[in-house]
Amino acid sequence: MRKSDSKKADRGGGSGEATMKPIDFGPLATWVGFNLRMAQEASFQAFSHHSAAIGENPGRFATLMLIARNPGIRQTELSAASGRDKSSLTPVVEDLVRRGLVERKRVDSDRRAYRLNLTAAGRKTLALMTRAARKHERNLDRIIGPRDKKRFVDTLKRLAAEIE
Amino acid sequence: MRKSDSKKADRGGGSGEATMKPIDFGPLATWVGFNLRMAQEASFQAFSHHSAAIGENPGRFATLMLIARNPGIRQTELSAASGRDKSSLTPVVEDLVRRGLVERKRVDSDRRAYRLNLTAAGRKTLALMTRAARKHERNLDRIIGPRDKKRFVDTLKRLAAEIE
DNA sequence: AAGTGATAGTTTGATCTCAAACTAACTGCA
DNA sequence: TGCAGTTAGTTTGAGATCAAACTATCACTT
């Protein structure tokens, strides 16, 4: 069983009875930040489990996709695009290179930087993950409903872009 | 400067010129999972920085709020409500108790379990954080727009609840 | 009672992440 | 030239998190 078991609840101000009370979320119930976290976590977990068979995780997937669509991208650009600190990317890229999914070339004109590209193996893995991701997305779409989807994603994008 | 510097980009299939190209997100652009992560991360960071002055973080805030609204809640219930594994909660609760914000009482009828309650100090800290959270939420609301807010939060809730 | 299976919370180990400090290399200006 | 400030990527340290294994206790059945 993943996550904690949400079963019965015997609670009460002081003296404990055997009444199963629902949780009171107070203001959290309507706050965006909290619900964003809960939804993200649920989505992340579900996709993690889906793609575990391939031996990757959602972060790797985004990384591979961004490299595929932006051949020659550099690590710092990649980190900005994927919303992670550049230092978080160091071990990820290292691992992808070690496993032969990504190729790293030093840039002639700037010897500090690397350019990243997918190898054939990388493209293959990406294709596998894309299939898993599509399945996952269909699941999310079903929950969101086709009507709201575009607006929902737009709102997420605005949030990501505009929070101070 | 937080996160990596998203500045210029000199990229190109093979030979590098000084053209600043925007990132191609491919299918990520429309996928819910990815945008959920980006928005969540942005929101989390912003609130973290806001509440850093109080010496807490978003997770602690949810924890305190849930204890406040559900006096006598047990750790396992709390972990389910806050979407974290119960084992993640152990050090959090320990720390809150150590710092005198939360009080932990063994349950007579079940000596495995604890009941959690806020102390006066805990209520004070929660009040402080609530102020910070309200400011943060106003900021998010402004981005989302009052019209869409309810629907947006409902969708987040459905996602959290219904992802397999 | 004794034993079996579930449950509350902790421990441990593996990942992932940020943030700040660091190295190397670039750019621009004096 | 040569120095000052910036940038690309790495290292290091701290903190979260999950998941599985574990301990203690409970609840139920026999």
Describe the structure.
The structure is a homodimer of 164-residue chains. The first copy, chain A, has 164 residues and is mostly helical. Chain A has a domain at 57-162: Orthogonal Bundle (Arc Repressor Mutant, subunit A). Helices cover 59% and strands 6% of the residues of chain A. The first copy, chain A, has helices at residues 32-52, 58-69, 75-82, 86-98, 120-144, 146-162; strands at 102-106, 114-118. In chain A, strands 1-2 form a two-stranded antiparallel sheet. The radius of gyration of chain A is 21 Å and the shape is globular. At the A-B interface, helix 1, helix 2, helix 3, helix 5 and helix 6 of A face helix 1, helix 2, helix 3, helix 5 and helix 6 of B. Chain B binds a DNA duplex (30 and 30 nucleotides) through helix 4.
